[in-house]
Amino acid sequence: MNDLIIGAVLLFTGNAAVFAQPTHDTHRYGTCQQFDVPINASAEGAIFDLTHIDDNISARSWAIIEDTRTTLRGADRIIKNITISGTFNIHVQLCQPHSSNGAGAIQIATHGGHYDSRYWDSKYQPEQHSYVEAALKAGYPILTYDRLGAGKSDLPDAYSGVQAGLELEILKELTLMARNRSIGSGSTASQSDSPRIIHVGHSFGSFLTSAFIATYPELSDAAVITGYVATEYLALAGYTPWAAQYAKAAQRPFDRTPGYIVNQKSGIQNIFFAGDPDTAFTKELLDYGDEIKQPVPIGELASGYKLVGLPGLNYTGLLHFMLAEFDTFVCAGDCNGVTNATALKKSYPKAAALEVDIQPNTGHALPLHNNATAGFEVSFDFLKRNGF
């Protein structure tokens, strides 16, 4: 796996080879490079009946309308079906551990809404809160990326340019690049030498990851789902607790077009931080969670229903669900007893192994709580016990 990040970064998109100039980042347990990957992708999308957001009043109105019980949802709010296609620059961080665990696997981690890939790689006390550092310490290469519409990736129209189906296809292309070793030094390994793929997700990134293993089961060997399980409690908290603002007019403005919203700090706490306030997280962790927040395009949110609850009937890999005990977004504040492995096996009957664990005294942003490393270790233990 060392050839993944040695030398120049050569990216293959279709028949064209593109050289990117990587930036290097020092981690205690590995070496990382950041670069942009041009990805050609196409997917079915829609024009949805959505509030036009171009100031803070319309942002708050959007949340209230979304939480109104008679508001149309899902496919019922489609005005017109469209195809979304293009070449999109996706910002990637690819890390190689100093010491490999010999599992022959690479992790691909997909962040959720309101954040970018920095969610996985905390610069605040990284030994305690960076999933990337923990993965490198455990010997796993890991690829993280800014999803379309977030961070340093392209920022298309918030209504019709960033939608769930397109993001699923982008994840597919990144996965194929990793499996074919065409992201890294440009080496041409044989198919038998392809690394196994461990997909990791959080929140909307877990929407994508779970939909990915249901749609493309042959492209994933293991999956770790955090901050998501499809039950009747999912998103029951609604949108008004987000305390959303129009990104361009926010207290800390972002250069975004209409339709991008961002949580105020109170909204970040409401959704992402929970548990005993004296022991679950610190003021500094909440400050950091607010510092790295990102705007969200509302077209992505409107299209998310296409990803939720898809059964992975042909998925034969490993599957680990890690839930935060006091997750407001996923479990209406208490994930104890909301699901179990027996129930989930009905949706993943061929999974080689399936387990569900709960990280105690933790809210939706699992890495940004005081016992984050314990949760990381539970997932890594599951992978190691099952040959990864």
From TrEMBL:
Pfam families: Abhydrolase_6. Residues 1-20 form the signal peptide. This is AB hydrolase-1 domain-containing protein. Residues 111-370 form the AB hydrolase-1 domain. Gene3D superfamilies: alpha/beta hydrolase. The keyword Signal applies. Keywords: Signal.
